[in-house]
Amino acid sequence: MKRPFRILASWLALFSAAVGGLLLLKNKMPGGFALLIPKLMAGALTPFALLAGAAGAVFGMLVGVPMAVLAGIFGTAASARFLNRATAGHDGFEIAFGPDWERQIPPERRQRLLAQRWTWKLPASPEPGLQKDIPFWTIPGTDRQLLCDLWTPAESVAPSGLALIYFHGSAWVMLDKDYGTRTFFRHLAGQGHVVMDVAYRLAPETGMDGMVGDVKRSIAWMKAHSAEYGVNPERIVLCGGSAGGHLAMLAAYAPTKPELTPQDVRHANLTVRAVISEYGPSDLRACYFHTNQDKAITRVKPQPAVANEPPAFLKRMLGKNYQRLGFDKGADAGSFKMILGGNPEEVPEKYALYSPINYVHPGCPPTLLIQGEDDLITSADATRQLYQKLVEAGVPAVNVVFPQTDHGFDLALPEISPTAQSALYDIDRFLALMV
């Protein structure tokens, strides 16, 4: 009779220990991508690993499996530590907006916000409206349209008058709108906000100048259509993950810079109320070295495209989304040498031109920075430097750094993930202050 319980104790304890081990792992590029998804899943499943470890250790003691006891204790301790740190409060809002910052949020709006940083399952929101594939710009002389999706509050939800324009992560070369973000957008619409989910152009179709130009075109479009969607044109917030966060900051901090502003929108008011960057690179030179691109082997001879493709399992997992998300471009497509035309020593002016940290000034909009300490793409130290520069310029800024957390954490099981929910808790309050 003891055998099934021994097996159960062993499996529970090993699962918990595996999660705990992944939480302690610090990925490094270029090989870190292989363990990125497992680490993200470990962070999301931490509460369950905590319970599994405790159960495995108890069962192990009862049925005499020392290995299960040790593994269970380790997994429980590692998971409890992570959960405690990921959901810990901070004084960022008090520093940025003053000791009475919570009283600046009207009581009726405060009631809608997440009540705590983490719960077993994210509360459901009323089903929002969704309009897909709305054109917001057509490339002159072509039929190529740039598309967005519009998420609007349910009729039962009072509109906030705020619009959040979102730019997906991409490494500036892949992925697309409406992938992994529906939980996030439903929640924002449940707060009364309108969400514009933008599919901007990517490399090699355009360079970073074209991408930030598309961001600014989306701002101009939303302001021009604000009355149609019940949006206050003075209450537009930019938000993005990874490369999308980088582009959002560029557009927010340098709304009128000619090199970053297309001719067709230079007449428009492109200023925004605020910007949120989720692990977006603020300094491209720092990102280049943080991702060890200086150590990458440069191919002398062109290689077949298939040699650079991601693993076959990814192609099977994504199915029809494989090409839509741009994974057929090859694994090396997102290098700075390809996108910017060289390394920081060869084209320093381009790294400077496209680095948001170089555009910090007292007129920058309020900024929320969300970052994982163990991010293998975006340096947490570089984000801290941006935050310090914003503070020195007198810009209201909040920098939230989650320990033991990697790139893209908000996209991994956000309904249950402690870090994803904790980030959403801060986003809720930041946006409420911007209304």
SSE topology:
Elements: H1 2-24, H2 33-44, H3 46-63, H4 66-86, H5 92-97, H6 107-110, E1 129-138, E2 145-152, E3 163-167, H7 182-190, E4 194-198, H8 208-224, E5 236-241, H9 243-253, E6 274-278, H10 284-290, H11 312-318, H12 321-324, H13 336-340, H14 348-353, E7 367-372, H15 380-392, E8 397-402, H16 418-434
Helix pairs in contact: 1-2, 1-3, 1-4, 3-4, 8-9
Compose a concise summary of this entry.
The protein is built from 16 helices and eight strands. It has helices spanning 2-24, 33-44, 46-63, 66-86, 92-97, 107-110, 182-190, 208-224, 243-253, 284-290, 312-318, 321-324, 336-340, 348-353, 380-392, 418-434; strands at residues 129-138, 145-152, 163-167, 194-198, 236-241, 274-278, 367-372, 397-402.
Provide structural commentary:
- The structure is a single chain.
- This protein has helices at 2-24, 33-44, 46-63, 66-86, 92-97, 107-110, 182-190, 208-224, 243-253, 284-290, 312-318, 321-324, 336-340, 348-353, 380-392, 418-434, and strands spanning 129-138, 145-152, 163-167, 194-198, 236-241, 274-278, 367-372, 397-402.
- It has an eight-stranded mixed β-sheet, with helices on both faces.
- The chain folds into two domains: 2-86; 98-296 and 335-434, Rossmann fold.
- Strand 1 (129-138) and strand 2 (145-152) form a beta hairpin.
- With 435 residues, it is of the alpha/beta class.
- Residues 298-308 have low confidence and may be disordered.
- The protein starts with a helix and ends with a helix.
- The protein is built from 16 helices and eight strands.
- The protein is globular.
